[in-house]
């Protein structure tokens, strides 16, 4: 193919999935001329699996993306079909927003957002090659020979690189949703020296609504009032659909067990490693053999389609086996499959090759984001896209990088886990991955991250002003709660006794009452006479959590202060660990490979001991004096 010079950009983003979208928008919004490339223009922001956003820990990620100035939360608010806050019965740290989304509406919304963003071009073109020039610039080359010269490249290729589909005995080269795979780019990356490996993931069948007996299933309505993802959405729309729940049974299990030898996974055809926390139904049947049944969420894919998604039934068994086991399920006895479930194997990187900015350690100007970095999930991808896009732009502008630490966010935790510990299967965010989860709540994501977004340049003046007003109201209300004395009147004591908590003998501060497990902000309203009546619900919730969990939060904060002490001790870029006397050989090797940014990051590398950390601290102390 004859090549031609097609122009220059500051940043080229390979991919318009969830990572590529956030990367492209962030880079363009920070003033860099940006081109986002996609294999298929009609699938910008495609959700090849469940059209749902959020859920445990993932909802936190969406809130954080929004707080930094990203797009996913706004798009989800504009296109949701049903919304629920999960885990309301548990502590505030694990409350997680989850929404079922209209898939086509979401993809269209995101595409239009890219099309209308200044400094951003969106192009349908498969990139097949990537070159590093001697002057530090990069070139990306399309299948049609167009050569674009760029100062930075962000790879956000999802599950397309070297994609291979598996359904029973059938297997072919392919991307998700019937798209073609990106083969050449894998070869180009390997040629450059990037080491790739194989992961796999899967998706369940989509079935026709008319073939499903929803009356046989448990209906699951959305929650009112709807809580939006974005801190900027003032009036979220209504819930528009019902979801349903049904269950597998002994018969389903038997069909699967009888056909396990036909599974490409159990037959050894798939070599890629699948997501531990999103197992296929055949995996669940084998791994949790004692479990009599598994839950299936039956969820609409959109308003203008009859396709239903069967969450929990991901499979790569042959098509006829899929039909057979689905028809054993209550309500699915006459089900018709519209899209068959499949597994997909793809190339991705070992994220230990990346810095916390998501730039490759060995290839300045080259960044990785999303499923390409070894993660799984739309929200994980979007979070990384935002971080890669911001950091590519900051570097080109000669500004300090945006590195979010573990105590600032789930985004920081996700990236630190990836680049410090690596991952041996597709990485999924969970609240248990954060040691600071009482502080990293979805309700306070703006408090934690909007100042960072503002500093970077992604938060407008108007939004910043609204944020500051909200913080002022929060502080005012906290002050009022802490200084208000509730007297031991009959009305107060009747209320306390009716909520099974002891009456007062003297006046007590409102915050002390709020700390009682039987009470909350809403319950105390009738006796809290100085409460402002125009306080927004989100400010009320913030104040309640901060007061109720004050002691725990304070304790966690002191752990954070300790952690940050080490996080501020940065290593020089050209650090030679082999020259540091006293470091054990294993530590020298691991540190040399991962090249941590700070002593804090070094302390989390497996194989680096507390004694090694002491040696590093002494070395830094001497080095900074010299
Ligand atoms: C079958 C399946 C099941 C999944 N199940 C779920 C699920 O239930 N829930 C969930 O959260 N996640 C699921 N995932 C993962 C989810 O799709 C990804 O985590 C998420 O989409 C990753 O976003 P991304 O931006 O990294 O990549 P993608 O969304 O895959 O986007 C990749 C982009 O790169 C472009 N591209 C690739 N190569 C090139 C090239 N050479 N040139 C130009 N453009 C290129 C593509 O056109 C596309 O725009 C599943 C994925 C698949 C395929
Ligand atoms: N390979 C991948 O990348 C891949 C593949 C499959 C799934 N996933 C991820 O895993 C998630 C699905 O995984 P899963 O099947 O383990 O389920 P999940 O982890 O999302 O569901 C766990 C819990 O969430 C709640 N929940 C789920 N759907 C709900 C609904 N419609 N209404 C109310 N509550 C609901 C339920 O309490 C359920 O038990 C996706 O959202 C995606 O993030 C990723």
UniProtKB/TrEMBL annotation:
<dbReference type="InterPro" id="IPR002218">
    <property type="entry name" value="MnmG-rel"/>
</dbReference>
<dbReference type="InterPro" id="IPR020595">
    <property type="entry name" value="MnmG-rel_CS"/>
</dbReference>
<keyword id="KW-0285">Flavoprotein</keyword>
<feature type="binding site">
    <location>
        <begin position="15"/>
        <end position="20"/>
    </location>
    <ligand>
        <name>FAD</name>
    </ligand>
</feature>
<dbReference type="Pfam" id="PF01134">
    <property type="entry name" value="GIDA"/>
</dbReference>
<dbReference type="GO" id="GO:0030488">
    <property type="term" value="P:tRNA methylation"/>
</dbReference>
<protein>
    <recommendedName>
        <fullName>tRNA uridine 5-carboxymethylaminomethyl modification enzyme MnmG</fullName>
    </recommendedName>
</protein>
<keyword id="KW-0819">tRNA processing</keyword>
<dbReference type="InterPro" id="IPR044920">
    <property type="entry name" value="MnmG_C_subdom_sf"/>
</dbReference>
<keyword id="KW-0963">Cytoplasm</keyword>
<dbReference type="GO" id="GO:0002098">
    <property type="term" value="P:tRNA wobble uridine modification"/>
</dbReference>
<dbReference type="InterPro" id="IPR049312">
    <property type="entry name" value="GIDA_C_N"/>
</dbReference>
<comment type="function">
    <text>NAD-binding protein involved in the addition of a carboxymethylaminomethyl (cmnm) group at the wobble position (U34) of certain tRNAs, forming tRNA-cmnm(5)s(2)U34.</text>
</comment>
<keyword id="KW-0274">FAD</keyword>
<dbReference type="Pfam" id="PF21680">
    <property type="entry name" value="GIDA_C_1st"/>
</dbReference>
<feature type="binding site">
    <location>
        <begin position="274"/>
        <end position="288"/>
    </location>
    <ligand>
        <name>NAD(+)</name>
    </ligand>
</feature>
<feature type="domain" description="tRNA uridine 5-carboxymethylaminomethyl modification enzyme C-terminal subdomain">
    <location>
        <begin position="547"/>
        <end position="618"/>
    </location>
</feature>
<dbReference type="GO" id="GO:0050660">
    <property type="term" value="F:flavin adenine dinucleotide binding"/>
</dbReference>
<dbReference type="InterPro" id="IPR026904">
    <property type="entry name" value="MnmG_C"/>
</dbReference>
<comment type="subunit">
    <text>Homodimer. Heterotetramer of two MnmE and two MnmG subunits.</text>
</comment>
<dbReference type="InterPro" id="IPR040131">
    <property type="entry name" value="MnmG_N"/>
</dbReference>
<dbReference type="Pfam" id="PF13932">
    <property type="entry name" value="SAM_GIDA_C"/>
</dbReference>
<comment type="similarity">
    <text>Belongs to the MnmG family.</text>
</comment>
<dbReference type="GO" id="GO:0005829">
    <property type="term" value="C:cytosol"/>
</dbReference>
<dbReference type="InterPro" id="IPR036188">
    <property type="entry name" value="FAD/NAD-bd_sf"/>
</dbReference>
<dbReference type="InterPro" id="IPR047001">
    <property type="entry name" value="MnmG_C_subdom"/>
</dbReference>
<keyword id="KW-0520">NAD</keyword>
<dbReference type="InterPro" id="IPR004416">
    <property type="entry name" value="MnmG"/>
</dbReference>
